[in-house]
């Protein structure tokens, strides 16, 4: 399982690194910043990766036991499915604890650290990427030009042209500017300049002269003021249960906070559900390879379908809180359904006769022995044993 979860995490990390590669290529950051940002994004996906890593590991183990005929030998010797299930269920509880820790502690912490790195990248954008005497576009519709940088880090001769708004054009010109951080946000404070704005090409532009003007660097990614609040995934348990009443995100959609809270408690149930599904699919001895392959595919498809349904249900609960119990019913229902399949399969493949068969065999043996003694036939006694 450790090998599988490492491989899946590596694939996810590479995908994240490729997506954030522009941090190095176009935003002037070093490889360490890229490594930190992509690694901090991993805990957000561990709750999804870990159960599937466990599922693949359990199915591989059970399939190997079947392929080497070890399950057949164990069943013939009187062992039940519980003998095989015990260590797998123990492993499932370990994964459940790890997923719960990531959901309540690891994920909020990592996402908050990631937010700080994002602010740092935005702050460094003007001081590292924009070269004096060159026009640069940090994003589509936004163009910068600076004349030079002062020895103390101030920016001299600023021209900024913003056409990201559909019906508005803004141009900023300033003699000097500097980067200021305040309350987790980054601003460029410009002094001695003016703003030229135009809403309609048929109308003359408006010119506003300023002594000091602060430009929000968070607007580089077209973030609104509502998104400055901590998102539900970035909050700890206490902040989800008792959110700030003044939070704009909470006022706009309180259902997201409820859905996130219940998702954190329901997600740890999936590792146990996946182990039970694997036991139901390939936990019993199979005599043919064809049956094993079919059961492997069916078990994996059932587990994937249940998890996808859970992800979809999390989104529905944010708008329909009355469906919240279904978040728990889905994995718990999968556990019980798999348990029923396991018990029925165990009855069909039960090793040795049951109590009733043992009782009738004993009675028949006693009657056969009494008949031989009464007949006094040694050949019958030798040939007709129970």
Walk me through the structure.
The protein is α+β, with helices and mostly antiparallel strands and about 375 residues long. It folds into 2 domains: about 180 residues, no CATH class; about 100 residues, no CATH class. The chain has 14 helices and 6 strands. The longest helix is centred in the N-terminal third of the chain and has 49 residues. The two termini are about 50 Å apart.
Note the topology:
Layout: H1 2-19, H2 22-25, H3 31-40, H4 43-67, H5 70-76, H6 81-129, E1 135-139, E2 142-149, E3 155-162, E4 169-182, E5 185-198, E6 206-216, H7 237-241, H8 248-252, H9 254-266, H10 269-282, H11 289-317, H12 325-348, H13 355-375, H14 378-383
Antiparallel strand pairs: 1-2, 2-3, 3-4, 4-5, 5-6
Helix pairs in contact: 1-3, 1-4, 3-6, 4-6, 4-10, 4-11, 6-10, 10-11, 10-12, 11-12
Could you write a compact summary of the structure shown?
60% of the residues lie in helices and 16% in strands. It has 386 residues and is of the alpha+beta class.
Radius of gyration: 33 Å
Low-pLDDT stretches are 222-227, 378-386
Structural class: alpha+beta
Which bin fits the share of residues in helices?
55-70%
Distance between the termini: 50 Å
Strand order of the largest sheet: 1-2-3-4-5-6
* Total of domains: 2
Largest sheet: 6 strands, antiparallel
Please tally the β strands and state the result: 6
Shape: elongated
**How would you classify the quaternary structure?**
single chain
Q: If helices are DSSP runs of H or I spanning 4 or more residues, what is the number of helices? A: 14
Secondary-structure element string? HHHHHHEEEEEEHHHHHHHH
How confident is the prediction overall: mean pLDDT? 80
* Beta-strand share of residues: 15-25%
């Amino acid at each position: 399982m450790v090998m599988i979860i490492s491989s899946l995490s590596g694939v996810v990390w590479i995908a994240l690194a490729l997506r954030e590669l522009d941090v190095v290529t176009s935003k002037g950051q070093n490889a360490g910043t890229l490594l930190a940002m992509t690694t901090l994004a991993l805990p957000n996906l561990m709750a999804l990766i870990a159960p599937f890593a466990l599922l693949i590991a359990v199915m591989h183990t059970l399939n190997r036991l079947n392929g080497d005929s070890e399950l057949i030998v164990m069943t013939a010797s009187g062992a039940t499915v519980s003998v095989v299930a015990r260590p797998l269920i123990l492993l499932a509880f370990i994964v459940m604890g790890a997923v719960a820790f990531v959901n309540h502690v690891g994920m909020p912490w990592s996402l908050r650290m990631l937010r700080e790195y994002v602010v740092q990248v935005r702050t460094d954008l003007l001081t590292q990427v924009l070269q004096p005497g060159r026009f640069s576009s940090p994003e589509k519709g936004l163009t910068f030009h600076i004349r030079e940088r002062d020895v103390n880090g101030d920016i001299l001769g600023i021209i900024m042209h913003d056409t990201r708004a559909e019906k508005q054009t803004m141009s900023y010109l300033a003699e000097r500017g500097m980067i200021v951080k305040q309350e987790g946000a980054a601003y460029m404070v410009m002094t001695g300049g003016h703003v030229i704005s135009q809403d309609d090409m048929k109308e003359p532009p408006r010119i506003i002269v300023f002594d000091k003007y602060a430009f929000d660097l968070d607007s580089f990614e077209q973030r609104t003021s509502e998104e400055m609040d901590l998102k539900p995934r970035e909050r700890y348990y206490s902040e989800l249960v008792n959110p700030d009443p003044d939070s704009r995100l909470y006022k706009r959609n309180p259902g997201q906070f409820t859905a996130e809270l219940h998702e954190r408690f329901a997600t740890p149930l999936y590792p146990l559900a996946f182990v039970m599904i694997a036991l139901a699919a390939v936990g019993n001895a199979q005599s043919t390879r064809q049956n094993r392959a079919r059961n492997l595919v069916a078990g994996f498809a059932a587990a994937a379908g249940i998890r996808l349904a859970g992800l979809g249900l999390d989104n529905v609960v944010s708008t329909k809180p009355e469906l919240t119990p279904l978040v728990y019913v889905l994995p718990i229902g999968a556990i019980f359904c798999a348990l029923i399949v396991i018990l029925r399969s165990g009855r069909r493949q039960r090793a040795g006769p049951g109590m009733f068969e043992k009782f009738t065999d004993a009675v028949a043996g006693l009657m056969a022995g009494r008949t031989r003694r009464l007949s006094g036939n040694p050949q019958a006694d030798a040939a007709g044993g129970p």
